[in-house]
């Protein structure tokens, strides 16, 4: 016998305040990302306090951006009950909105600290994937962001998933694709890829961050079509056909697209956005190299302009005048006394 909710989304309660798995999982993802950033930042002598402050500012910015993005496309569901806009523990945050919020926060914070934008976001790229990888398990607990109906045998015999995942994927009256798991594993592979890529000597500043966008968006493009809760809009039939054509290799692997409500439109927003991001990231990499904007390498030292400005300025004559040891000064005094005696 299966239940509509195999895992209680509330871990425990402190008085009348419930503590949700969703929040704990998101918090864990943020801390793991912080650890990865601090560890890599040590290579460039960036203090860990810098990344800790970035986390304290970036997480709220990402959550606000993610919620605004989601609510904007689902306004009809919220306009008559505005209090639900703030109930993020029930789910309903969009990763692209989170990235927009985090990037805006980063631009302001990096400028304030005097660090170059591209150098710091390169360091943070694996952290972003780690947060997404772990955060998707919050969707698992909440039974959201899942895919279309699937046979139980597909989960057990083909994917060889453990019971706790299979049982949690029984939603309504059917089993569903664990799209949270697909995206989580894709993010894990992306972390490994970025960590290998950033050790290569040919990589320029900014290209790890842009590679993150390319990798994540490729996975998101294919996984998004499996889901049944996609945000969408009515667009060109030609664009819709192009997207379906690019996704068609998934059918060869035995996957079918999840139900997409025609009331939302004929194009899934995240799929179209993923394609645009892939194209834009590749163009930016090429343009930055051709125009010479990417003249710094990932492995080059990172220096804060604010830190450099605070260093004491050494006078020009002091820089070329050798420092005299006390014994040298005493020796010159003895020579002067001997000369006086001779006279």
From TrEMBL:
Its EC number is 2.5.1.145. It is an enzyme of class 2 (transferase). Pathway: Protein modification; lipoprotein biosynthesis (diacylglyceryl transfer). GO terms for biological process: lipoprotein biosynthetic process. One of its GO terms (molecular function) is phosphatidylglycerol-prolipoprotein diacylglyceryl transferase activity. One of its GO terms (cellular component) is plasma membrane. This is Phosphatidylglycerol--prolipoprotein diacylglyceryl transferase. It comes from Paenibacillus typhae. The lineage of its organism: Bacteria, Bacillati, Bacillota, Bacilli, Bacillales. The gene is lgt.
